[in-house]
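Final report, closing paragraph on structural work. Over the funding period we assembled a curated collection of sequence-structure pairs, and we close with a single example.
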Amino acid sequence: MPHRPPKDVQEAAQRAERWIEDGKAGKGFTDTGRRRASQLAAGEEVSDEVVKKMQAYFARHSVDKDAEGFTQGGEGFPSPGRVAWDAWGGDAGERWVGTIDLD
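Its predicted structure, as stored:
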């Protein structure tokens, strides 16, 4: 079943796309992150498989929120971790996929 990302998820991904263009993504940024940002920024529907990947991403990377440069106004903002976080939909994306039960 396809899932359409809400507006706040699209906005986070659009912000990430701007940061990526500005060279803020860092050397370790993946093609998968770029694709996800593009997909979510455009408001494209995502599959159950992508929702599972997003759920796993947020579970794995929530610790990145404690790193330097993650929070607006902090030194080094936006860190590559923050760029990646927003590429996957940011806090809004984490909330959104957290409400989707795939079982």
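The chain has a mean pLDDT of 96. The chain is about 55% helix and 0% strand. We thank the funder for supporting this effort.
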